[in-house]
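Researcher: We're teaching a course module on how sequence relates to structure. For the next exercise, students receive a sequence and then see the predicted structure as C-alpha cells, so they can try to spot secondary structure elements on their own. Here is the exercise chain.
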Amino acid sequence: MRWITARRRRPLVGYAAVLLALVAVGMLYAAVTGLGSSTASAGSGSESPQITEGRNLFAVSCATCHGMDAQGTDVAPSLIGAGAAAVDFQMSTGRMPLKENDAEAPRKPVVFSQQEIDAIAAYVASLGGGPAMPTDQQVSGAGADTALGQSLFNANCSQCHNYAGAGGALTDGKYAPPLTQATDREIYEAMLTGPEAMPVFNDNTLTPSAKRDIIAYITQSRAEANPGGFSLGRIGPTTEGLVAWLGGIGALVLAAMWITAKKREERPEEIAGDR
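Model: And here is the predicted structure for the students to work with:
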C-alpha cells in the first residue's frame, strides 16, 4: 500500500492514468462505430436492386446539390423524409435536375427514363418518411364528381392557378404554373407533396376522393369550349380588359386619322371655290 501511495504522489502517474483512460474510451468508440458500419454494410448488401440502382444514379446526378447521403447542402434541401412522390413529381416534370437556381423551377423536358426515376424515388423512400407514389387506381378519375371538384378547386387552388388552371404570378418572382400540361399523376403528387410555394394537401386536408374530383374538373375544363370566342389565355379579366382597351384606343386612332385625311381631301376644293 505504501508503494502504491508513493507512486500516486508522482505527477507522471496521473498523466499516465489519463492517457490510459483516453485510450480505453477511443477503443470503445472504435468498437461501437465499427459495429454500426458493419451493420450498415450488411443492410446495404441486402437492399433491393432497384434501391442500389437509385443510390448509384443519385450519387452521379443528385449528390452534388443534395449531398452524398441526401442530407442537404447550402444549395439544396435535405431529401430525408421527402418521399417517393416528391421525387417522381420533380423528375417526371423535368424540374430536377435543376439547371439554374431561380425563384421557381420551370417545367422542362424529362432527362431520366421512368425506370430511372422509379429507382431514385425508391432510394429516397428507403431513407425514411414522406408520401409514397400514388397508384393508378388512386389517380384514376373513374366515378369522380366534377361539380364537387370545381367547388374544391375554386376554394383551394384557383387563387394561385386561376379558375381554369392557367397559372398566375406570385410574390418574389415565383408563380403558380399552368396545369394545361400536367398529368393526373403529377397533379395528385403535387397536392400530396406541396412543391415550391404550394401548400401540402395531405389526405387529412383533402381526401383521396376529393383529389380525384379536383383532377376530374381540371381535365374536363381543358376540353370545354370558350363561349365568348377567343380564350385569351383564360387568365381572366386582365387580358380581356387589355384587349378591349387596346381595341378601343386603336379604333379611335383610326377614326381620327380617317377624319383628318378626309378634311385634307376636301380643303383644296374649298379653296378653288373661293377663288
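Model: If you want an answer key for the exercise: The longest helix spans residues 237-274. DSSP finds twelve helices and two strands in the chain.
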